Amino acid sequence: MSHLWDHISLTPSNHLFPPLEFSFISIHPHAPEDYRSLQLELSSHSGLEESRLSHTIPKRAKPTYLAVDKENQIIGYVVPIFRSSQEFAAGFSDTDEARVRDTSAYMARRDMFTSGLEMQRSEQISRREAMRESAERISLNKRIHEHEEHFKRMNEDSLMHTPEFVIKPRSHTVWEKQCVRLHCTVSGWPDPRVVWYKNNVAIDPVANPGKYNLESKYNVHSLEINRCDFDDTAQYRVSAMNSKGELSAFASVVVKRFKGEIDESLPAPRHGPVSEYGVTFKTHIVDKFGVSFGREGETMSLGCTVIIYPTLHRYQPEVQWYRDDVLLSPSKWNHMHWSGDRATLTLTHLNKEDEGLYTLRVTTKSGYETYSAYIFVRDADAEVEGAPGAPLDVRCLDANKDYIIVTWKQPAVDGGNSILGYFVDRCEVGTNHWIQCNDTPVKFARFPVTGLVEGRSYAFRVRAVNKSGMSHPSRVSEPVAAMDPADRARIRGTSAPWTGQIIVTEEEPAEGIVPGRPGELQVTEATKNYVVLSWKPPGEKGLEGVMYYVEKCVSGTDNWQRVNTEIPVKSPRFALFDLSEGNSYRFRVRCCNSAGVGEPSDPTEATTVGDKLDIPSAPGKVVPTNNTDTSVVVSWEASCDAKELIGYYIETSLQGSSVWEPCNNKPVKGTRFICHGLMTGEKYVFRVRAMNAAGLSQFSPESEPVEVKAAIASPAPPYGITVLECVHDSMVLAWKQPTFIGGADITGYFVDYREVIDGVPGKWHEANIKAVSERAYRVSDLLENKKYQFQVRAANMAGVGIPSRPSDTFLCEEWTIAVPGPPHDLQIREVRSDSLVLLWKPPVYQGRDPVNGFYIDIKEANAPVEAWRGVNTKATEKTFIKIKNVQEGETFVFRVRAQNKAGVGKTSEETEPVLALTKPGTKEIVVDVNDDGVISLNFECCDLTPDSKFVWSKNYEEIADDSRVDTETKGKMSKAVFKSPGEEDVGIYSCFVTHTDGASSSYTLSEEELKRLLQISHDHKFPIIPLKSDLAVEMLEKGRVRFWLQAEKISANGKVDYVFNNNVVSQGEKYKMNFDKNTGVIEMTMESLTPADEGTYTFQMQDGKATNQSSLVLIGDVFKQLQKESEFQRKEWFRKQGPHFIEYLGYEVTPECCVVLKCKVGNMKKETSALWYKDGHEIKADEHLGFTEGVLKLEIAQRDSPADTVDVPRRLKISKKDSGVYEVVLKDDRGKDTSTLNLTDQGFKDLMNEVFSFIANSSTPLKITSTDEGIRLYTFVNYYNDLLQVTWHYKDSAIAFSDRIKSGVVGEQLWLQITEPTEKDTGKYAIEFNDGKGGLRRTVELSGQAFDDAFAEFQRLKAAATAERNRARVAGGLPDVVTIQEGKALNLTCNISGNPLPEITWLKNDREITSDEHCILKFESGRFASFTITGVNTSDSGKYSILVKNKYGTESADFTVSVFIPEEAGGKKK
Asked: How is 1377-1411 classified by DSSP, letter by letter?
């Protein structure tokens, strides 16, 4: 709007003085502060007379300070200034003529005096005249000052006046998460102070950082509210106040939202020019996480790269994560990390509570940016098939000292069977012991847990059960203490800040007053398991506070029973249990204190015990609508009259399928939800059910099927408007296609234009009523030498999109340049890693001569302008070019210039940046010649959309004439078929697929390629007999030899000649021939081979005119090898007539490290026996085998079973004694077969190496732990063997063990102990397992933080062990109780230990005693403490203690002495 400043003038309707002239400049509301500081200035003039100041001053009309355009639209503000001091002085004359006349007289006098008397004038001026002139100046200044004061009093509009709202704030209705800006314009002098209020409460931006943004510039005041929510719905007031008065204006803001879900497409918040360190930050969130799917128990990370420009060293933005608009805090479930340019949120252990809309918010001092995406969490795999999913959102609904009411939400997945109920488990905080709270499952999603210990904290979890089994437990709830609410409130309470006032809220309670009656008693919740009462305390109560007794009675009776008979409750809330379901009760409450029990409250209405909450009704009609190609928006009618509704679950199924899958695993509260993760092109149906604590409703009716595809929307605005040609009354415009076409083909464009006069745009006018299909259009009926702006809108079947941004301002004047105008409509096709094709259209303006060529320029997208370089040195006459040898992975832009005889013209607009990279799945055009000799070009595209079309072109012009080529498309394949190929068909053929990400390819049909294809076509028209396989030989059973080949296609009239060494052979005893005309298999078999059969074998075929033959040469070593193989197979056939080995004896090491000998046998029967031998001694016999073919096994080494090896590591029994030669013999009446396996020497080594390899691969990563002796490195293996060889390394060198560094094995743990470690022990450690091959090495780095943590833990454990060894102890010698007769002597001794030597103190009844004649206390030898009473009496009865103490700890031992007198009856103890 800056171009308006110098072109808007405004003259007030009346003047203070008629001849006074004003000039106005226009100041935009956002003009710099310098413009705002312009002030009115007055200059004195010596010729001003008193009579000119005393005339009547007319009343001045109020001027307006609003600048308007020709359409009376407010576009800025104006401030009046005086043109000059002389003009101000002249303004006091009666008329302009008088001012001119006075000026002429003065000029004449000045000329007269300067004609020679100037020197005399200065000498003749007397002192009196000088004083008179001085007095006149003083008088004039006084008059001007009086005039200014009078001007101030008379002109209150421009100086002292009350605030006035020139533009008042207007009300807004916005969607949730949008930003809203209220603004107003205020005039007044002095400048008013503006304050914004929300519901009459002043708004403080500092108290709500990032929420509110206040701005005041050039009398324009604004309030911006970011990320509106329901709490922002209010009446807002703006108050303007100065010394003359106060004025307010009001506006309302209403925040609306889609029920159940926030629309992710809402616009981003606006950012104001707030700066830090004088810098305005621009924030961009890139590399965003998308809609994600996880499973319970998994870990998921969400991350975005954040670019903040400009980059300031160590600048830290505020990074916040939200789930469903609730701010997340770091916890064991949520880990947040900011690396300086990337924000990451890691969900360490997914649960269904983690499902929701996640939002990243990055806040700087200049505003904030947000990004959101939905995260779905599916149930973990059930331990039992058909079991339901885990419940979710377990929390405490109510807590008291003897009960806690737990509530939860039902899962979406019931496993295919109805959920029978839920089990609630509790765990005391600090333990891991879970206790089931209910014996039978409860269906209501609330349960009172009783039997708790007051003051202790508990956590809860819930499991669902159906007839198939139990679900996984839910996520553990937050801990809650079993405590009276009054005590909890007192513990949590904090002191109020000092305000300088003492406020008395109640009268001081008087001592000895019986409390009054409780008020407003009501039943707040009633189920079949419990009833919750609440009430208000009485107004009158005693000094020490009140407690309460609760009473009940069965309806219809007056028999009141006290429920809490033992201890009254402190808080005004109580839960009653053990009520009979179905019975009706009334309740009342009494207050009590030390003064007594007060009167009862009014009883409640009769309450019937039972579940008052009904299962909600089924939701209504479900309507799915398209959203994206993988998601659908589902809306439904809410359940009618649903009470305490928790939310809805949505399920989907493929059309025609009976398998339903949940769309959400966390209930949504609205009636709209976006279901993600669907398959493009498939049809789905949806259903919904509602949920409250009573259970899940019936399913809604199924929706109509919806095909998953992107919704059609109006296209985005075109961009890049340029002028291609200009004449005196018209312009040809060109523009670029919108980046988003809305999912449907663009049907046309509409062009608007407006005239720009002195920088001020006029009104828009339509250039075309009917849409134009091309991206170029001539706008006619323009005025020559006038300036114009243009805008373009695109249209598709969904409607007309929003207009583009106004173009640059173009002058309509006829081009007279000799060179051509710019080419236009540049397009990129066939992008590959090393090449691409650029297309363009020639310029509309040809210049003085026709265009005769084009030059193409290229540069990297981010390179400066100087980086443009030419692609071709010689101009090309074509309107396309294939650019080769581009750098893979680099992004380029291109432009084109046309030339004619006069020279090279203007450059075109540059293309959009294009990445030189072959996209995955890219296909090329394939040429094909079928069996009939038809030549075709074939192109396949795997990324088709429902609206995609194949467009074939020749030389990059769409094929419109089908006389030479036919095109046809089936599914993902399209082909161009040549009707009669010839020289006319030579050229470049290309295929482009619309509505894809640029899928295209081309094929160059040159003259040489055409000749090759025509030859292939000829061969296909006149084919030889094709062969699937040439003549080959193979061995059959019993050593027979088969010669064969297979013809691909042969008719029933085909004939075959079999030729051996140029002689035709025929069917006979030696040769057996067969010709299967259905399969084309031709074969000849021979029973065996003799030396006479060495030579060349040929099959000759004929089928009509087609012939073919295939030969096989069998001579020399090839023939001898084949003959030897035939003889061997013949012998094998005879061997296999009896029991035999299909696979000979070998061994296998199982994953459990068991060594098993195995062999596969065949042709078995019941009488066949298998005998196992080791070193010639029979070790096992398998008889009466029940299979014909199978596997025989012998386990020679197995791991110890736990029952046999109590407290002994599970190790492998295999050892060197298991080495030997193993043999298996199969035999029966048909014969026998033998297989041998040598497991001695190298064979046994190979076996053990394989065992060691399994053990090594089972080892865990090397870990670090600390003991009281030092640092221990360890790893676990699944099984351990004593023969396993391991080597420990330190810094790649084998460790020499000593008393300080040791290694060993404990169970299945291999460890290395470093005693008393020091800094010298830091470094890289490794354990190497030797398996005879490459081995396996596990490493760990013991340095840096890892060493510091381990060393600190070692020091702690060492100190703890030292303290435990040396602390003071009392060991043995003291009984619990001593009963002794009066007068007897008592002597007790105990052992004392500790280093340093402990201090000993004896106590009686918790008071210290000292040694005297009656009670002798001794401590001898540093070990023995004795307690002796020489003669006990009844006064010695009591509790005695010995207390030992040193610097490591304190310990005590207690005993009781009871003295009795024998004469007392019954031996009564004292």
From this structure: EEEEETT--EEEEEEEE-SSPPEEEEEETTEEE--
CB atoms within 10 A of CB 589: 26
pLDDT digits 0-9 by tens, 218-249: 788 999 999 888 788 888 999 998 888 889 99
Q: Are strands 1063-1065 and 1055-1060 parallel, antiparallel or unpaired?
A: antiparallel
Dist. CA 676–CA 293, nearest whole Å = 9
Peptide bond before residue 717 is cis, with ω within 30 degrees of 0: no
* SS3 annotation, 1332-1376: CCCCEEEEEEECHHHHHHHHHHHHHHHHHHHHHHHCCEEECCCCC
Closest CA to 357 of 325, 331, 328, 327: 325
337 Rama sector, left if φ>0, alpha if ψ -120 to 50, beta otherwise: beta
Cα angle 716, 719, 722 (rounded to 5 degrees) comes to 155
| Cis ω for the linkage preceding 1396 (within 30 of 0) | yes
Q: Which of 1115, 1174, 1103 is nearest to 1145 (CA)?
A: 1174
pLDDT at 797: 83
| Residue pair 1331/1281 in contact by the 8 Å Cβ criterion | no
Residues of the chain with pLDDT under 70: 1-128, 130, 147-159, 257-278, 488-512, 540-544, 611, 1183-1186, 1188, 1197-1213, 1464-1470
Query: 1381 - beta bridge partners?
Result: 1460
Could you give the CA distance from residue 1397 to residue 1401 in angstroms, rounded to a whole number? 13
> How confident is the model at residue 120, as a pLDDT?
54
Identify the sign of the CA torsion 1241, 1246, 1251, 1252.
Answer: positive
In DSSP terms, 337 is beta-bridged to 344
Contact 735, 723 (CB under 8 A): no
pTM of the model: 0.45
Q: Which residues pair with 548 in a beta bridge?
A: 569, 591
| Rg (the chain; Cα; Å) | 51
Nearest to 908 by CA among 841, 830, 808, 811: 841
Place of tokens 């250039």: 767
- Reference 783, options 731, 729, 732; nearest CA is 729
Name residues whose C-beta falls within 8 Å of residue 1133's C-beta, 6 or more positions apart in sequence: 1037, 1038, 1039
For residue 250, CA distances in Å to 124, 192, 795, 1259, 1335 come to 73, 17, 41, 74, 81
Asked if 910 and 891 count as a contact pair (C-beta separation under 8 A), the reply is no
